[in-house]
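Async update (no meeting this week)

Hi team, since we skipped the sync, here's where things stand on the single-chain job. The sequence we agreed to prioritize is pasted below, unchanged from the tracker. I ran it this morning and attached the output directly underneath so nobody has to dig for it. Comments welcome in thread, and please keep replies under the output.
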Amino acid sequence: LGSAGNCPWRKNPQVITDGNVKERAYTLLDQHLKKASLYRGNAVLIPLGDDFRYQTEKEATSQYHNYQRIFDYVNQNVDGVHVQFG
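Output:
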């Protein structure tokens, strides 16, 4: 997946697996729900990455698969929430 690079928290990306998908899904969902609480609508757009992300096919593909695994977990296990790529 790459290295921490310019990540301000100095944490390397994690591959999402059966063993960590629940924890990572709820961590991400918590952040998204906090952001959503700042708006009146029932949908929120959350950009992924920054100006210097997804510069290689490997990074883009890896992140897509990680997020899709999290989205699938949330959509199947969390009532009242639907997440997807826009």
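Quick observations from my side:
The mean pLDDT is 87.
The longest helix spans residues 57-77.
Reply here if anything looks off.
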